[in-house]
Amino acid sequence: MFPVTRPRRLRRTAVLRDMVREARVTPTDLIYPLFVRHGKGIRAEIGSMPEQFHLSPDTLVEEVGAAVEDGVRAVLLFGIPEAKDERGSEAWDDAAAVQTGVRELKRAYPDVLVVTDICLCEYTSHGHCGVVRDGNVLNDPTLELLAKTALSHARAGADLVAPSDMMDGRVGAIRSALDAAGFEDIAILSYAAKYASAFYGPFREAAGSAPQFGDRRSYQMDPGNAEEALREVAADLDEGADLVMVKPALAYLDVIRRVKDTFGVPVAAYNVSGEYSMLMAAAQRGWIDRERAILETLTSIKRAGASILLTYHAREAARLLR
Ligand code: PBG
């Protein structure tokens, strides 16, 4: 006798398929990462990331306006400094590109959620995410610099700050600095489980942030570890993180799921530059269907348990979802 169960019955029509869909991506899930530098009228395509651009504050405002038209409501800003130094001092300069971009964005689009990445690697001459002494990245002396950077972003008007450096204790340091300055309402999205990944390759060209010696394995996580990701998340939540992130997304879908199941907090996942550029490269060659691949990718991250998706595909995805 044929089995009574026929799963295909619920796949017969689009209406049925839509009704029984478990994971659905919506434009409200998306955060669109952007790169800001000083200047005017700049819109320079990033070689390693097709259709992504270096923008000056004025073109940033234009780009966000267009993204809002597409349905995007949140952005994440990275800064390209004018000058780098040992400590990355432009990171906490109130007149730096990110801070200027935040102020102009907030003036033009007060309702757009503005998240800023807090890290020193774009700003340091050695390209590491913290203070370096004798070839080592020092944890505790870095915390004060990260806190100063977060404060400067908060003063500019950022809604949410996102530390991506992976120093121990940085969420607590940033939280107390924000609170002490009256920014107790500014939330922290912590890059809690951030792996030492090959998939950041294109970003390092985009941000000019490749380490000048060594690599990031003494602070970012080993790709083999998932239990450790849970400890990282627990620590960041203890220190006051409002939202936690897993990064990259696709090679770490299991980690997203475990974080979600263990803590029951909103989980963000970063569909990083390498994931973006691989898809775009294959699509440009006609090897995969770009639109379907984008939606399937984002749906998989949602299905794994993420509710916030940071992705360079945000504008296109928002258009496709409308
Ligand atoms: C800064 C930072 C990186 C990314 C986000 N913040 C690069 C790195 O850690 O080397 C990667 C983003 C991407 O690849 O899209 N620490």
Characterise the protein shown here.
- It is a single chain.
- By secondary structure, this protein is of the alpha/beta class.
- It has a domain at 23-243: Alpha-Beta Barrel (TIM Barrel).
- 39% of the residues lie in helices and 20% in strands.
- It has eleven helices and twelve strands.
- It has an eight-stranded parallel beta barrel, surrounded by nine helices. Strands 6-7 form a two-stranded antiparallel ribbon.
- Strand 2 (43-46) and strand 3 (49-55) form a beta hairpin.
- The chain is globular.
- The relative contact order is 0.14.
- The model has no long low-confidence stretch (mean pLDDT 97).
Keywords:
two-stranded antiparallel ribbon, 322 residues, TIM Barrel, binds ligand PBG, alpha/beta, 11 helices, 8-stranded parallel beta barrel, single chain
Output the number of helix runs: 11
Please write the string of helix (H) and strand (E) elements: HEEEHEHEEEHEHEHHEHEHHEH
Low-confidence stretches: none
Alpha carbon gyration radius: 20 Å
Judged by helices, strands and strand pairing, the structural class is alpha/beta
The CATH architecture designation of the domain at 23-243 is Alpha-Beta Barrel
